[in-house]
Amino acid sequence: MKKILASLLFAACLGFAGNASAAVQEFGPDFARFTVDVPAEWTATAVENGAQFVKNDKSCSVTVIVAKNEGGANAEAIGKAVAEQAGMKDAKEVDKADSSYTCLGTIGGVQTMIVTMVEDGKFVVSSVSGQDLKASSAILDTLKDK
Questions:
Q1: pTM (2 decimals)?
Q2: Which strand ranges, in their side-by-side order, compose the sheet holding 144-145?
Q3: Contact present, 63 and 12 (Cβ < 8 Å)
Q4: Which partner for 51 in 24, 25, 27, 100 could form a disulfide, CB atoms 3.0-4.6 Å apart?
């Protein structure tokens, strides 16, 4: 499952294509739907188990994937596995807590931050890639469970 998730996340980070966006959009699998406020200068695209958001100038992308945590793995184990499978060889831990893990590195020469959260039998992996990680990660602040 982690390999599939990493592949999806990596493909979504590199596939900067999408459809026109609206203000608030809903995404995710049936067991974990979520809404995101998509800024006008971003394009949102549904991907398997989540969504990808790409700034219209292609300078940044944000991907959110939700999956069931059937094996009960912790956030650090999932985050490290996703980073490794996505090709992040220079991953550096930025933050670690009981239910979350954040690392920073490069994937395909692009600066990327991967944030993993584990809660209620599921995990959420968010990837923020591009030139301005801080500004791009603001999209994640609008993410809400449906």
A1: 0.83
A2: 24-27, 34-37, 144-145
A3: yes
A4: 27
pLDDT in tens, 19-76: 443 589 999 999 999 999 999 999 999 999 999 999 999 999 999 999 999 999 999 9
Rounded CA separation 89/59 (Å):
22
Q: Contact, 104 vs 94, CB < 8 A?
A: yes
CA angle centred on 68, ends 86 and 61, rounded to 5°: 40
Which pair of tokens denotes residue 108?
């395909």
Cβ neighbours around 139 below 10 Å, total: 23
- Mean pLDDT of all residues in the chain? 88
Domain that holds residue 109: 2-145
What is the C-alpha to C-alpha distance for residues 16 and 43, in angstroms, rounded to an integer? 9
Q: Residue 132's domain is classified under what CATH number? A: 3.40.1000
Which two three-digit tokens encode residue 91? 């991953």
Give pLDDT, residue 135: 87
